């Protein structure tokens, strides 16, 4: 008597209507991001899956020849592949046909939410999240001894050529920089990096290790023979004497002794180089300034770029002041 | 004071007085008379044979480390800024430092154990002045090694400088106390062994050059602008291996010893010579670390430095006779290993750069060298699109080849877009994503991705739980709610609770039904039965009956009580009404004697009368012995009547 208006036919008709035009309702009301269809933990798991976390390496590089030793390979990320990953993960939660039909209607919302969550997986130091629709994702795989020997490599990517400002440090929130979605060492010598966009220039930099001195060794024509060179610096302003980094003062070595520098002769040739302003006498501090070596930054970009060639090597400009220390007593004792 | 992150380089920091003994002579002229002169002695000390370990702030390369140090000069940073200039290397020379940092490989020199300081310098050299310690270590090297490896006299002042930093800058200051540090550089770049492709261990020693500046190589040794990395400076180990430390045999008969010594000393090794490599470089590093971790606290430094000297124990002086062997006192030493050729720059410059799928160009084979052997396995099938041909075992057991491409492509790829109905294709089974390529093979890239995604989700129980909870909540419950809200306009009485978490329509409605039924039970169920049955009406419970009953029971005049009751209530009236008290004022004990008997008989009379009253009468005047029996009740007899009969029968 109470439920006389509800009969089986009416219920069936209404269910059929509802199944076709289902509206997704918020499953989770996140305090930051508002109502979302996918629960937060699930959304984070799917976002990390999209960035290929946990995917075995054989799926990423099916053949070893794709990543030979001492090589770097750039690529575009195939979004259809990562979407298939997410669909596979979602298929665990659907058991019967009605579930699958429901998932099909929800899937566009799921995809958009996971696209947003992708950008939030790696947020270093409180940087703002990039807004906008999901764009192309690119990246590179680097296999080299440089990765195992220097675990703390710095990687930066830029949207456009920086020109003369190759040595500037631009914060990650700058629109010229392309954000990193993932940077991880998959093996001791293999580094995988994913960028949120298509970069025009990529920098890979050596991590700092205090103040170091040395020369630059260049292989010569004969096997196992090397030449050494030093970029001469102006002792008064600490700038490079010659902006072209390939012009170096050759370093003399002692004959028969591999690697032993002939310092007096090197000092003499540095003094003789125009623009060093080193004075005529032997000076340990000026010599140390010439031998200073800064962390090396390798720039990957378009070699055909028009304009002044960006200084690819040794782009740091040291800011050091020189002075001679003479203690007052010495002047009294040795007038 | 420089800013944080900056440093100032100074050429030298000369102390006002060098180390040594001085006399201080004082003379004062006083008007009152002659005064005695003062003669005092001052001794200025400085390390000569041993450096306290806390004076070393840092070294590069770090002690016992492995790395690519081919392009870097080893250095040692000292706490005291004047240390390299505190002694005169040669009498009269005040600006040349007396310290030098030399880097020697295994086999090029020997480090001794703790010996008396007199033996720490070359025979014939006597160091005057006070010594700081009694024992020290020394480095013994041949003339060849000195000529090839040691810095010249003019190089010494180039290799030492002073650095000034802000002491608050912890990275640059390294724990110094005044911000001024002395830095001593080496003049040798440690090289990797390219002949045998093996790492090389080096020992860096801070040596004392006092009195031995003449032993250093001449100021202008022959130089070259290139160096051959495979050259060998000197190696005493083949000599040591051959044995024969006997001087006699070496000079007279042991031709092998003499010739080998000559050969090792004079010739430059051609690349074809097999050089004995650094023995046990890896185990030595591990041994040093083990020693560092397990030595007792006070001895740890000494033990670690001792273990580092493995490989430097063969006494050079024992085996080499044709040239002088020098000894230099060593103040500090540490060892490191060069494990790779080249530094960071070399690696980055030599990278093969390309998009994924770029094949490596085989290295150009120089003429005359035989071509490299063919690769052990056939080259993989690559396409321009980045697909790789892989063997495929189908479900039916056939072995075919299929195409596969990982998530990395060498060109931008397209992503599915929403169609007109805002609908996206979604696969539920991996077989839905298999594609067939025009050449007849299958493309299993997306199917493989689907399967690995599914397996990764299944491998984490928390993800499975979250998915199933989402399915129950989102799919089932939501559907139920929406159906019910479409249906509920017809059901006015039963409004299902839309906020519930039941996952189907039936549960929602049944719950609501129960709640509604509980609200109005008389309509849904039968009228309710009272909690208790009413009892039998009491016979005395009629007008004035209770008061009369109480009065008769207590032996009081009923009318009096009734009068009072109307005024003040039953209990108060009973309290006020005087109770007749039996006489008996005998002095004897209360319960004995004639008084007691009289009370007893009276008590029994009253009890009889009361019980007769209660059983037979409604009203009994006081003192009336005759009691008329009560009128029996006309109602039916029940259990209470039977009980009363039994009690009355018992009293009779």
Give a short summary of the structure.
The complex is a heterodimer of chains A (335) and B (652). Chain A is α+β, with helices and mostly antiparallel strands and 335 residues long. In chain A, 27% of the residues lie in helices and 21% in strands.
Explain this structure:
The complex is a heterodimer of chains A (335) and B (652). Chain A is α+β, with helices and mostly antiparallel strands. Chain A contains nine helices and 17 strands. In chain A, the strands form five sheets. Chain A has a four-stranded antiparallel beta sheet. In chain A, a hairpin with a 3-residue loop joins strand 1 and strand 2. In chain A, helix 2 (40-50) packs across helix 5. The model of chain A is unreliable at 309-331 (pLDDT under 50). With 652 residues, chain B is of the alpha+beta class. In chain B, the strands form five sheets. In chain B, strands 5, 7, 8, 9, 10, 13 and 16 form a seven-stranded mixed beta sheet that branches. A five-stranded antiparallel beta sheet of chain B has the order 1-11-12-6-4. A two-stranded antiparallel ribbon of chain B has the order 2-3. In chain B, strand 21 (435-436) and strand 22 form a beta hairpin. Chain B is elongated, with a radius of gyration of 58 Å. Mean pLDDT of chain B is 78; it is low at 253-278 and 623-634. The interface between A and B is large, with 142 and 150 residues.
Count helical runs of chain B: 19
Q: Give the N-terminus to C-terminus distance of chain B in angstroms.
A: 128 Å
Helix content of chain B: 25-40%
- Assembly state of the chains shown: heterodimer
- SSE order of chain A, one letter for each helix or strand: HEEHHEHHEHEEEEEEEEEEHHEEEH
Distance between the termini of chain A: 123 Å
Which features does this protein show?
A: 335 residues; alpha+beta; four-stranded antiparallel sheet; 9 helices; B: 652 residues; seven-stranded mixed sheet; 19 helices; elongated
């Amino acid at each position: 008597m109470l439920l006389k208006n509800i009969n089986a036919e009416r219920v069936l008709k209404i269910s059929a209507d509802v199944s076709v035009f289902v509206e997704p309702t918020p499953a989770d009301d996140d305090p930051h991001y508002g109502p979302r269809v996918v629960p937060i933990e699930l959304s984070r798991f799917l976002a990390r899956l999209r960035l290929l976390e946990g995917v075995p390496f054989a799926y990423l590089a099916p053949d070893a020849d794709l990543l030979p030793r001492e090589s770097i390979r750039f690529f575009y990320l195939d979004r259809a592949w990562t979407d298939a990953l997410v669909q596979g993960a979602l298929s665990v939660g659907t058991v019967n046909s009605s579930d699958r039909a429901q998932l099909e209607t929800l899937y566009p919302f799921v995809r958009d939410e996971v696209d947003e969550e992708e950008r939030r997986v790696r947020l270093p130091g409180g940087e703002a999240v990039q807004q906008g629709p999901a764009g192309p994702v690119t990246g590179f795989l680097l296999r080299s001894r440089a990765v195992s020997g220097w675990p703390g490599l710095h990687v930066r990517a830029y949207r456009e050529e920086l020109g003369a400002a190759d040595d500037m440090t631009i914060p990650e929130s700058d629109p010229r920089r392309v954000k990193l979605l993932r940077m991880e060492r998959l093996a001791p010598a293999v580094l995988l990096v994913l960028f949120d966009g298509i970069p025009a220039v990529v920098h890979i930099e050596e991590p700092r290790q205090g103040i170091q001195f040395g020369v630059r060794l260049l292989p010569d024509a004969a096997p196992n023979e090397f030449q050494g060179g030093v970029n001469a610096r102006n002792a008064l302003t600490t700038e490079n004497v010659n902006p072209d980094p390939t012009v170096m003062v050759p370093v003399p070595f002692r004959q028969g002794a591999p690697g032993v520098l002939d310092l007096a002769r090197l000092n003499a040739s540095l003094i003789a180089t125009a623009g060093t302003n080193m004075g005529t006498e032997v000076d340990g501090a000026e010599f140390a300034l010439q031998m200073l070596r800064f962390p090396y930054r390798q720039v990957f970009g378009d070699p055909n770029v028009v304009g002044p060639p960006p200084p690819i090597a040794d782009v740091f400009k040291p800011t050091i002041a020189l002075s001679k220390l003479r203690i007052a007593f010495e002047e009294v004792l040795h007038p | 004071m420089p800013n944080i992150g900056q440093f100032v380089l100074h050429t030298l920091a000369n102390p006002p007085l060098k180390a040594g003994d001085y006399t201080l002579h004082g003379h004062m002229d006083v008007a009152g008379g002659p005064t005695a002169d003062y003669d005092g002695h001052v001794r200025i000390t400085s390390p000569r044979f041993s450096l306290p370990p806390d004076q070393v702030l840092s070294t590069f390369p770090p002690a016992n480390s492995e790395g690519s140090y081919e392009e870097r000069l080893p250095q040692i940073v000292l706490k005291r800024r004047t240390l390299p200039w505190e002694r005169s290397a040669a009498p009269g020379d005040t600006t040349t430092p007396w310290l030098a940092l030399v880097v020697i490989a295994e086999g090029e020199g020997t480090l001794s154990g703790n010996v008396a300081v007199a033996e720490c310098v070359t025979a014939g050299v006597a160091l005057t002045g006070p010594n700081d310690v009694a024992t020290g270590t020394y480095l013994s090297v041949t003339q060849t090694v000195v000529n090839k490896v040691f810095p010249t006299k003019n190089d010494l002042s180039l290799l030492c400088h002073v650095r000034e930093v802000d002491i608050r800058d912890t990275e640059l200051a390294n724990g110094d106390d005044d911000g001024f540090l002395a830095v001593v550089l080496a003049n040798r770049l440690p090289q990797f062994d390219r002949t045998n492709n093996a790492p090389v261990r080096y020992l860096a020693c801070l040596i004392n050059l006092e009195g031995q500046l003449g032993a250093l190589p001449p100021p202008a040794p022959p130089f070259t602008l290139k160096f051959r990395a495979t050259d060998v400076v000197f190696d005493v180990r083949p000599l040591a291996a051959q044995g024969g430390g006997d001087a006699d045999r070496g000079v007279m008969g042991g031709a092998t010893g003499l010739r080998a010594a000559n050969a090792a000393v004079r010739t430059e090794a051609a690349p074809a010579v097999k050089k004995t490599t650094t023995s046990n470089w890896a185990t030595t590093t591990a041994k040093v670390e083990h020693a560092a971790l397990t030595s007792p606290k006070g001895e740890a430094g000494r033990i670690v430095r001792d273990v580092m000297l493995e490989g430097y124990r063969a006494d050079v002086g024992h085996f080499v006779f044709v040239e002088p062997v020098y000894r230099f006192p060593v103040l500090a030493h540490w060892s490191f290993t060069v494990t790779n050729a080249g530094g960071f720059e070399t690696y980055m410059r030599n990278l093969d750069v390309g998009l994924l799928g770029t094949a490596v160009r085989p290295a150009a084979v120089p003429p005359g060298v035989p071509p490299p052997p063919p690769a052990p396995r056939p080259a993989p099938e690559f396409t321009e699109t980045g697909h790789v041909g892989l063997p495929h075992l189908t479900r039916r057991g056939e072995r075919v080849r299929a195409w596969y491409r990982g998530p990395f492509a060498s060109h931008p790829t397209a992503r599915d877009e929403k169609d007109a109905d805002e609908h996206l294709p979604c696969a539920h089974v991996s077989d839905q994503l298999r594609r067939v390529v025009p050449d007849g093979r299958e493309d299993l890239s997306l199917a493989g991705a689907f399967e690995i995604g599914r397996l990764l989700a299944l491998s984490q129980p928390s993800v499975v739980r979250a998915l199933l909870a989402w399915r129950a909540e989102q799919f089932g419950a939501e559907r139920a709610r929406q159906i019910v809200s479409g249906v509920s306009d017809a059901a006015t009485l039963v409004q299902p609770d839309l906020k519930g978490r039941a996952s189907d329509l039936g549960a929602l409605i049944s719950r609501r039904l129960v709640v509604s039924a509980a609200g109005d039970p008389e309509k849904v169920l039968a009228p309710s039965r009272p909690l208790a049955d009413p009892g039998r009406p009491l016979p005395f419970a009629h007008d004035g009956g209770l008061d009369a009953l109480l009065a008769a029971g207590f032996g009081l005049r009923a009318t009096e009580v009734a009068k009072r009751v109307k005024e003040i209530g039953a209990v108060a009236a009973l309290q006020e009404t005087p109770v007749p008290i039996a006489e008996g004022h005998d002095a004897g004990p209360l319960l004995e004697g004639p008084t007691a008997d009289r009370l007893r008989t009276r008590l029994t009379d009253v009890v009889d009368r009361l019980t007769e009253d209660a059983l037979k009468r409604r009203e009994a005047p006081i003192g009336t012995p005759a009691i008329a029996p009560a009128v029996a009740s006309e109602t039916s007899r029940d259990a209470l009547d039977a009980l009363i009969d039994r009690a009355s029968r018992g009293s009779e």
